[in-house]
Amino acid sequence: RETIKKKATAQGKFKKQSGGRGQYGDCHLRLEPLPRGEKFKFLDEIVGGVIPGKFIPAVEKGVVETMEKGVLAGYPVVDVQVAVYDGSYHSVDSSEMAFKVAASMAFKKAFLEANPVILEPIYNIEVRVPDEYMGDVMGDISSRRGKIMGMDSDGRFQVINAQVPLAELYRYSTTLRSITQGRGIHKRSFSHYEEVPSDIAQKIIEQAKKEKEEES
């Protein structure tokens, strides 16, 4: 997922003249972060008909389609409030398509100004291991950017509760078996989304850029 950390505004203006009827759409958007899990809110703050009401759904559609595709690395954008608060139109050349394109342009511009970040899924894991493997298992969890949340003992077994990014849990069962000689077991469940550390985010963005260039 992708999201933002601060407020930003931008204008998107789409103007095209190619013989006969042209295309014209112009809108100003304000983006603000929402609390985690709120997904998306769209506000129409247009006054005085600077954008006719019939084009507002096209503005929202342009925003939603851009959010689905992502801006930084192709992941869906979440937890953002978008307000359309200003703009202009042309009585002949304006169309829904033109406003959709203008909204997409404005959203991308504002998004990049709004301190954008990538979010990754964090999982709760419960690991049950014999006492003697406890140190090695905890060391392995830490090396996976995991946070130890608590520990319990159950006879000769230790139960470790931790939160680990899903990206770091690849082949975890195999590693756990090898560390504990087949005696460690774990279960996992989704917890929440959290900001990816900036160095890792940069790698994700560069990789996405590279893949996009290869496609085109």
From TrEMBL:
GO MF, any single term: translation elongation factor activity
Keywords carried by this UniProt record: Elongation factor, GTP-binding, Nucleotide-binding, Protein biosynthesis
Composition bias, Basic residues: 1-18
Species, as recorded: Caldithrix abyssi
This protein's name: Elongation factor G
Functional description taken from the UniProt entry: Catalyzes the GTP-dependent ribosomal translocation step during translation elongation. During this step, the ribosome changes from the pre-translocational (PRE) to the post-translocational (POST) state as the newly formed A-site-bound peptidyl-tRNA and P-site-bound deacylated tRNA move to the P and E sites, respectively. Catalyzes the coordinated movement of the two tRNA molecules, the mRNA and conformational changes in the ribosome.
SMART domains associated with the record: EFG_C, EFG_IV
A GO BP annotation: ribosome disassembly
Domain Translation elongation factor EFG/EF2: 1-115
